[in-house]
Amino acid sequence: MGLPTGHVTDIPALSRSAQLKALGNGVMPQQAVHALNLLLTTMPVGDLTAAA
Prior knowledge:
Number of helices: 2
Low-confidence stretches: none
Strand content: under 5%
Largest sheet: none
Protein name: DNA (cytosine-5-)-methyltransferase
Radius of gyration: 18 Å
Mean pLDDT: 79
């Protein structure tokens, strides 16, 4: 899911904290899509209507 295996982790000179900093928020869109898919597949259809 996302970047190829080792994209950041296969660089020996980077510490764990440097790897996380290099990735930054690049994983956020994938996490958001996954979370929305989980919510939409488990939420009853009637709950999608907005309260007036």
